[in-house]
Amino acid sequence: MTAQPGNLAALVDGVALPEEEARDLWKRFSEWMGEHRGDMAGFAKASGFTKITPEYRDGRAVLVAYTKEPPPAPPPAPPAKKPAKKPAGKGSGARRGGGGGGKR
Predict the structure, then answer these.
(1) Residue 82 is assigned to a structural domain of this protein
(2) Does residue 90 lie within any of the structural domains?
(3) Which regions are flagged for Gly residues bias (predicted)?
(4) Is the pLDDT at 26 greater than 70, yes or no?
(5) What share of the chain is helix, strand, coil (3-state, %, to 5)?
(6) Which of the two residues, 80 and 96, has the higher pLDDT score?
(7) 95 assigned to some structural domain
């Protein structure tokens, strides 16, 4: 029988911590956040990281931490091109003139 990983994990500079170390980091992170609501930067600095953020990956809570500057985020995808609009005119189905309907 294969042991299943826990629900908590941690990555430091892209390297997974052993489960026990990950749980310890989560415990310290949770305690800090309980005392310093929303202060992830403070926890990172106090713990020797430049940045730390919780994420949800593959059904697990993962703390992602960096000891040096994290790599830049990938650039956003370019917007999808929309088809060009055809100008109104011949062949577009637009009616010209008064449209009729009056008495003759």
Answers:
(1) no
(2) no
(3) 90-104
(4) yes
(5) 25, 20, 55
(6) 80
(7) no
Task: Name the nearest CA neighbour of 10 among 29, 33, 37, 38.
Answer: 29
The pair of structure tokens assigned to 4 is 């299943």
- The band of 98, judged by pLDDT with boundaries at 50, 70 and 90, is low
In the chain, % of residues over pLDDT 90: 51
pLDDT of residue 1: 36
Rounded CA separation 69/99 (Å): 68
In this prediction, residue 73 carries a pLDDT of 67
- CA 8 from chain centre, in angstroms, equals 19
DSSP tag of 14: T
Number of Cα atoms under 13 Å in the Cβ half of residue 77: 3
Residue 24 lies in domain: 8-66
Cβ neighbours around 69 below 10 Å, total: 8
- Report the domain count for the chain: 1
